[in-house]
């Protein structure tokens, strides 16, 4: 008796076509009987999910026009049954939990071996999720320390207020005038924000605030 091939509809979302094609080869190796859609940007991902029943979405974390976190709630609203595997070059130890927290069913680094990607795809297909040992440890630690998931929880209300003003483009003098505090106080708070978030510039602050606010 011939073994029944696994059937699924995949959406491969990455702005690099070589990555998508590599995943196609892996699906062939796994002997999937599947229909495969491709997307190279965020709008195409949403368009494809709206128009087709996607079983498994394998998606990069970052695209030229933005972070895939920004569309995950909409994907889940459009198609709650779609399983999402984040496959990215982004550091798993600092990034995976926020994707899992928003509904991703798995997270895998592009630095992983080919076999690990195969395992992740099969686990999501058969069991609905893939949690690596790294992310499992992070999840356990996050129960003890919620700040692991959202680094902004490290900031006080005043620090958040000032951080948001920096993100809006305000300078030290303008923040000082608006909050009626000294400029050197603003500078001190800025330094403290950077230290707590382990960042070095406003661009990194903007990215963090966009991801977590």
From TrEMBL:
<dbReference type="Pfam" id="PF00072">
    <property type="entry name" value="Response_reg"/>
</dbReference>
<dbReference type="InterPro" id="IPR016032">
    <property type="entry name" value="Sig_transdc_resp-reg_C-effctor"/>
</dbReference>
<dbReference type="InterPro" id="IPR000792">
    <property type="entry name" value="Tscrpt_reg_LuxR_C"/>
</dbReference>
<dbReference type="GO" id="GO:0003677">
    <property type="term" value="F:DNA binding"/>
</dbReference>
<feature type="domain" description="Response regulatory">
    <location>
        <begin position="9"/>
        <end position="125"/>
    </location>
</feature>
<feature type="modified residue" description="4-aspartylphosphate">
    <location>
        <position position="60"/>
    </location>
</feature>
<feature type="domain" description="HTH luxR-type">
    <location>
        <begin position="148"/>
        <end position="213"/>
    </location>
</feature>
<keyword id="KW-0238">DNA-binding</keyword>
<protein>
    <submittedName>
        <fullName>Two component transcriptional regulator, LuxR family</fullName>
    </submittedName>
</protein>
<dbReference type="InterPro" id="IPR036388">
    <property type="entry name" value="WH-like_DNA-bd_sf"/>
</dbReference>
<dbReference type="InterPro" id="IPR051015">
    <property type="entry name" value="EvgA-like"/>
</dbReference>
<dbReference type="InterPro" id="IPR011006">
    <property type="entry name" value="CheY-like_superfamily"/>
</dbReference>
<keyword id="KW-0597">Phosphoprotein</keyword>
<dbReference type="InterPro" id="IPR058245">
    <property type="entry name" value="NreC/VraR/RcsB-like_REC"/>
</dbReference>
<dbReference type="GO" id="GO:0000160">
    <property type="term" value="P:phosphorelay signal transduction system"/>
</dbReference>
<dbReference type="Pfam" id="PF00196">
    <property type="entry name" value="GerE"/>
</dbReference>
<dbReference type="InterPro" id="IPR001789">
    <property type="entry name" value="Sig_transdc_resp-reg_receiver"/>
</dbReference>
<dbReference type="GO" id="GO:0006355">
    <property type="term" value="P:regulation of DNA-templated transcription"/>
</dbReference>
């Amino acid at each position: 008796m011939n073994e029944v091939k696994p059937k699924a509809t995949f959406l491969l979302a990455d702005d690099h076509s070589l990555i998508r094609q590599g995943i196609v080869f892996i699906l062939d190796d796994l002997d999937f009987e599947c229909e495969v859609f491709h997307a190279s940007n965020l709008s195409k991902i949403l368009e494809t999910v709206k128009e087709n029943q996607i079983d498994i979405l394998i998606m990069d974390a970052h695209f030229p026009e933005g972070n895939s976190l920004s569309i995950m709630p909409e994907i889940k609203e459009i198609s709650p049954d779609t399983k999402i595997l984040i496959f990215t070059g982004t550091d798993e130890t600092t990034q995976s939990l926020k994707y899992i927290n928003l509904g991703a069913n798995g997270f895998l680094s592009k630095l992983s071996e080919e076999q690990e990607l195969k395992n992740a795809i099969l686990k999501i297909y058969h069991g609905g999720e893939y949690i690596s040992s790294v992310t499992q440890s992070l999840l356990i630690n996050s129960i003890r320390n919620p700040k692991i998931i959202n680094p902004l929880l490290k900031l006080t209300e005043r620090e958040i207020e000032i951080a948001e003003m920096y993100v809006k483009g305000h300078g030290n003098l303008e923040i000082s005038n608006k909050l009626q505090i000294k400029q050197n106080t603003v500078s001190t708070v800025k330094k403290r924000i950077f230290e707590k978030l382990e960042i070095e510039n406003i661009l990194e602050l903007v990215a963090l605030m966009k991801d977590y606010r």
